[in-house]
Amino acid sequence: MARKKTLTENMRKFAVSYIANRGNVAETAKQIGLSNKTCYGYLQNELVQQEVNHLMSIVPVEKIRSAVQLQEELNFMLDPDYKDEMIDLKGNIRKVKPPLRDRVRAVELLGKFQGAFVNKVEVQQTHFVIDIIEEDEKDYRTIIDAEFIEV
Q: In this structure, are residues 27 and 63 in contact, taking their beta carbons and an 8 Å threshold?
């Protein structure tokens, strides 16, 4: 049986991460959770090479920021001495502290990067368990023993 000639989801992730990490296979493997051996195998795959070339033709490498670079920028925004550039009504560029909402958003994004926020959803279902059912002469059913169970 011949193998399919399509990219898997992991291959696509590898191609994107490989470009974002500027060709660093070890960092790419760590970032997407695959072994170095698997990633080096992906580099030999013709479909992956085509995907990498396609992605590089769309976006120049110097324009792609890695996740580490994004985290560094967010950390830089949290520095108390950080000032953002703003243009006033006269067209002059001024340095001002960013609004608190921007700093809070930076903290939220860093937390998401690091997996600090996990959405937990608790589902409670009630089941009705019937042990014995008897049928009366009038064709009515009578529940003899029943209980609620919360799962």
A: no
